[in-house]
Amino acid sequence: MKPHLLKIALSPASSFSIRHDVVPVFFDRWHYHPEIEIVFIQEGSGTEFIGDNIRSFRKGDVLLVGSGLPHYWHCSDKYYEEAHTNCEAVVAHFNPSFLGEKFLALPENKVIRELLTNSKRGILIDETIRGQVVELLFEMLQASDCKKLLLLLSALEIIATSNQKLLCSEGFVPNHDASQTESINQIYAYSLANFHRKITLEEIAAVAHLSPNSFCRHFKSHTRKTYSEFLQEIRVGHACKLLIENQLTIGHICDASGFNTFANFYRYFKLITGKTPQQYQQMYNRRQAA
Q1: N-terminal to C-terminal alpha carbon distance within the chain
Q2: Closest CA to 27 of 49, 53, 56, 58
Q3: pLDDT at residue number 173
């Protein structure tokens, strides 16, 4: 399962770039880049893949994605189907050594060095500091070159001294062999289009042009999980999105997410999120009301 190398167009006169995107959908290919990425989801929702982590993303999320860490965002169906519905994000890219190796090696920058190391597992920025980080990102869009560096350093310092939710498992190791880029895109795309129903092993193996046994070994060796585990994570991620939207009953959410029984729905939901569907929905509603 190999990601696509995405070449970020950094100016020769700049050590990092920042842009404000308004697009029909986010770049939905499994990819990586040497640059570290900070992204603020200003508008959009769907399923997020970062390394071996799968979760539901939504408006307001801020993430730090490390150098070489494969990732992509698959937007909800409405962004593909509704002509006047756009996604929106502020995205900053910078080289791991943007401050210079000697500067990063200073004792005062220990927390920044540790943050950049942790970013290789992907970091979901804590809700308590998101507002501060987002404010700095928007300032960067308008600032002079020197001021941009100072603002970026300030944002990293705020993130580094806050609670950090690491997304990938500790043992996750990216594999960047470009020869299988299309394979992972096909498997992910097929799974996202069909997770609402039963997908047989023979069916998904055929998508990857492998025998069922070869597919199982291949998928497990590159993702550190079985295809069944991967599929359940997609289904739970979709259920989380529907619970947040609060427009369907638990029964309808169970069916819409591809679970064939309530028992399986509750079991996998609690296994992956640590909460029951009702507890997850109540927690989100409390945060919104705070």
Answers
A1: 41
A2: 49
A3: 67
